[in-house]
Specification:
alpha/beta; Rossmann fold; seven-stranded mixed β-sheet; 9 strands; binds S-adenosyl-L-homocysteine
């Protein structure tokens, strides 16, 4: 890719500041999260013809029929995760890689799983070019990634019909999972705190819409 394709100029930076003001107005309070939004050039995670849309607070189509989540949703989930520096985070649904970049920017050690081979292959180059080095996996997020468990935090960025049992197992005691749970087109943002090896505390945080969390791998 040429340098121009990675361009992040004053106009982009200005649009990002406006988006951050909008997120603040909509209730995002965690300054660390807002600073991460200022650092990560969202327009580079979408096809280059769509700069105009990159800094609107909207989800947008990416490859393989998937979407890059709405900035407010990314900010809301990231805030709910209450990340600490060096937290080990498992993300299910790499998609464009934008959420993984935000988590990395906040100092997390990120492990991210995607079931669409096309997306799995395309995001690594961009993230590495931007200086982020999450571990990427092609696989079915319902199974998590037991090799690296337990995780301090787990974030699922696709709508799950129910809370996946294996993911709860891979969460550290004292850890938190954030996941949209519900049928297609209407999920409730849910946080699951693992209180002990046998107990969880579940809390609901309003309605959101995500592409569905599907089983298996596509394209392998
Ligand atoms: N976090 C992404 C959002 C992408 S949309 C971003 O910042 O752009 C959700 C993604 O979850 C899609 O790419 C979809 O393919 C993926 N997905 C759905 N079910 C999955 C599963 N079981 N395992 C892994 N990824 C899954």
């Amino acid at each position: 890719m040429s340098i121009a394709e990675f361009e992040d100029n004053f106009r982009h930076k200005g649009l990002r500041r406006r988006l951050i003001d909008e997120l603040r107005m909509k209730g995002i309070r965690d300054e660390r999260v807002l600073i991460a939004f200022d650092k990560v050039p969202r327009h580079l995670f979408m096809d280059s013809g769509f700069v105009e849309f990159a800094y609107q607070d909207k989800a947008f189509p990416i490859a393989a029929g998937q979407t890059i989540s709405q900035p407010y949703t990314v900010a809301f989930m990231t805030e709910l995760l209450s990340l600490k520096q060096w937290d080990k985070v498992l993300e299910v649904g790499t998609g464009s890689g934008y959420q993984a970049a935000i988590l990395s920017e906040l100092g997390a050690k990120v492990y991210t799983i995607e079931r669409q081979q096309e997306l799995f292959l395309s995001c690594r180059h961009l993230l590495n070019r931007l200086g982020y080095n999450p571990q990427f996996f092609l696989g079915d997020g319902y199974e998590g990634k037991p090799t690296y468990a337990p995780y301090d935090k787990i974030i699922v960025t696709a709508g799950a019909p129910e809370i996946p049992r294996l993911l709860v197992e891979q969460l550290a005691v004292g850890g938190r999972m954030v996941i949209p749970v519900g049928p297609i087109n209407n999920q409730v943002m849910t946080s699951i705190d693992k209180v002990s090896s046998t107990e969880v505390a579940v809390c609901e945080h309003g309605n959101f819409v995500f592409v569905p969390m599907l089983k298996g791998v596509n394209g392998r």
